[in-house]
Amino acid sequence: MSWGVNWKASVGLLGVGIKYLAVTMLVPLVVALVYGEDIWVFLVSMALVAGVGVLVERVDPDPDLGPREALLFVSLAWLAAAAIGTVPYLIAGYNTASTVGLQTGSIGALTESVINALFESMSGFTTTGATVLGEISTDRHSHALMMWRQLTQWLGGMGIIVLMIAILPEVAVNGAQLMESEAPGPELQKLTPKIAETARALWLIYFGFTVVYIAILYGLHVFGMAPNMDLYNAVAHGFTTLPTGGFSPEADSIAAFSAAVQWVVIPFMVVAGVNFALFWHVLRGEAEIMLKNAEFRAYAGALAVVTALLAVLLFRGAAPVIELGGATQGVTENSLRQAAFQIGSLLNSTGYATADFAQWDTHAQILLMFAMFIGGSAGSTGGGVKIVRWLIVGKAIRRELFTSAHPDVVQPIRLSGSVVDEDAIRGIMSFTLLYVVLFAVSAVFLSLDAARIGTQLTMLESTSASLATIGNIGPGFGRLGPFGSYLFFPDTSKLLMIFLMWIGRLEIVPVLAVFISAIDAR
Amino acid sequence: MAERNGGRVPTDLAVIARDIGSLLLMEAGLMTLSVLVALGFREFHAALGFLVAGGVTALAGGLANRRFADAPEPKMKHGMVIAAGGWLMVAVFGALPLFFTAWLTPPAVMDAFVPAAADTSSWEPIGVGGTATLSSLAYFRDPLHAVFESMSGWTGSGLTMAIHEPSLPRAVQWWRSFIQWVGGVGVIVLTVSILSRPGSGSYALYRSEAREQKIHPSVVSTVRTVWKLVVGYTLLAFATLFVAIRASGSAYAESLSLGETAWQALNHAMTGLTTGGFSVTDNSIATYGSPLVEAALLPIMILGAIAFPVHYVVLRDRSPRELARDLQTRWLFALLGAGVVVLSAQNVASVPVVSGAFATESFLSFPVPLLDGAGLDAVRDSTFQWISAMSATGFQSAPIGDWVAGAKVMVVGAMVLGGAAGSTVGGIKIVRGYTVARGIAWQFSRVFLPKSAVVTARIGDRTLDRETMEREFGEAAIVTLLWLVALVVGSLVLVNVAGPEFGYADALFEVASAQGNVGLSSGITGPSMSPLAEGMFVLNMWIGRLEIIPVLVFVRAVLYGLNP
User: Fold this and answer.
1) Which of B421, B379, B7 is nearest to B190 (CA)?
2) Which of A291, B184, B392, B506 could, after both became Cys, cross-link B502 (CB 3.0–4.6 A)?
3) How would you classify residue B197: left for phi > 0, otherwise alpha for psi between -120 and 50, otherwise beta?
4) Does A438 contact chain B (CB < 8 Å)?
5) Model's pTM, two decimal places?
6) Across the interface, which of A363, A509, A520 has its CB nearest the CB of B445?
7) Nearest to A22 by CA among A58, A60, A48
8) Predicted complex ipTM
């Protein structure tokens, strides 16, 4: 059966990627050496993954990708990355009390542990930040394993395909097609004539920001303004801020650090939600391109307005005084900081927290939920619907009102001065509708599935679980709050959420296009 | 004084004001007609109320109509604004009979409307000018309540401020049913003649007139055809219901006189066929507690959910096969069937969790395998409520507020989708849902084709070229998106102002019900709800009835005028 696609080519290329993924495990290996932890976990993982990579590569040693194969490859690549990412979790926690370690006691325990590990790994690579780890601490899990968890987010952030295009010549041949399928947002901006150079530029900017960020965090520690932000934590958070990830090796997320650290994290989270291509223009001295960009302006505006609203709510007492976060009622600095941090974290899908917003009042939570719907910019590392899509949907609605009364007038839609392609507009409509429908249907499924095992979800819990996974955000409300866990969901729900994170990161299109063209081809 | 059609009154405004004026004149006629009903039942205060309301409405309508009498014929570009503005004005003026009757009727007379046989121990007394009455008529002394009731009537929603309908004067009961019935005809005319333009998803009764620039001839011929159908069906529904109520044998039905039975059958026939949902009994259809009456109502509601152009063709050609040939009707039956099964399964499964939502005794005299009494009741309620929700009727036979969140959310799905375009249902309509789904699949299947490839898509028996498909998809997608946005925003507002005993599922349910012109209630709607939410519901019902876009065009026209 052909399915209209040469799947061997896609799978063969996958092998190359898997092989290189083994190399990235050097990072946790080094951490294990430094902390004197068990290095065998990562040595065995590396050998296993490299072996799988070599084997898979032999399916088609000289892959030749057409457009269909490229889409299939991109879809599979994220699945494969997530699957490979489970190896260290499974091995490190083998038959221990770890929720993500391989359990061989019974079939039920086995499937549950594998699904948990896959959930954690998918949540990592897709930079979601939802966790089933149970107890989050470096005492419970090794420093090395926790660093691997952080690293998966950093690798996934700018896109594993973009990374492959940047460094692997055999992938770069079909780079444009691949990048188009992976890039967050409706259209890809080519910065340079050669796609590999564009990919390299994007990764360099990403890398640069990460390095500067780690240096600042560690600098704060050195100068005594951040006692808990040691080198390990600086690197660990460096790995999850720029990719809008949200994992933290600290159970209290960023609430474990001083106000100074929190103020530093905010601008870097904001940066992570900006289209990285715009930074490339800024570096070339064309700052006005960024300032005139409609999406950037909308992003900045949305951040400012929602933050101000939330700060007012907090100042007037929307948050109960709890251990973490401190009092906000009547406290200007803390109200502003908590508002800016939570909005900076949720609007562009990072998922860090400095306070347990699951305990705030309904008004504040609904505002946060609203922010979660917006999403980051196209070309950023953020998830969600993306601001540019909302902009275009809004403009299309306005045009529809006009053409309803004047059916003969042709009126193109412009964004930042240039006309938007009609095909792209319809694509955006389809995407937004599919997104909303998937979100709603999944929320219903989650609620029914939980009821099946005797757990009643509140409406806020089921909707936020669905939104937080399809939008790659991470924390939700209720038991899924920033310091909560997705562990209590039944396996079927976790599988659904793994699927949601996957198609959410790929923005639905490649996955569906592959399915539908396969059906058509038969 | 401004000069006619020049200077300070722009032509467009004159055209619109003239046409809305004639709508109000017609409404004044309906009010005057209702005076006869009031006189017939010897309700003289109500008669006076209707007379005054009719006079005021005629005055306002006549003024607008006469003053701009020589404005030019309306064009398509005016159609939407006239429809949106007209619906709003008709609803506002339609509140006057309720309002005036409530103020003109002395409390002592109001008390007389409360049926002697009714158990009023749980009724809340309403304060009126120093004394109190049990008659729900007193609620309409609040102008917001009156406007809500009128908008709910004219849009065929069925949410009500009159908690105990039997305690209303007959004239007011009649007015509520009557405006739903006339509003039902109005919405069919609206969708098949005014909103029917290329790409709108709704289709024309007469193809040749679909693109006509002048709207009057098209509207008039549509009204003539639809009128006959609606009157015929209503008589049929009346006869069916009359027999069903007489034959039901329940204690309540036994207690009714022949005249009372006829009155209830008439009102429920009018509001059931036009999928409105106002009732003259205290607990809607649950009052009868009769499977027979519920069964009799099912086909009536389904009739109302099928597009009237399809009814027209079926009756003209005497060929029921046309029903199966119509895409929307096929899907309507498929969705009704599938929904009943799924909702029943959900409710049967939830019987142990929700105590009291379902009766424990079987309504059948013989045992049914697998289902006990409560399970059977769950299936019966699910069937009736699903069809009531999807057809946007809103007759209630079960305490939906007590159902589990999952069941409520399913019903929300039915209320958001609705039945066939071209009928009196609410929601985004089947044809739109289908176009959106088809369009999305179509886009993905084209991913690998070059842009110049010739592609066509099929919707029902029409083959659409690329451009038409894109246009239809764009329109359907925008309406659907706006619908969902309004739903989410509305429910977020409502969950904040409704009492703490209502969860988010209840709020979502209630907004979906108002916006989909359904009328089912989870218990939030009532005279004691927050005025903010009540005002919002008036808006929801209005935009829902007009499928949002015309209202937005109306608002745009108010702000910027009609010219490009």
Assistant:
1) B421
2) B506
3) beta
4) no
5) 0.85
6) A520
7) A48
8) 0.78
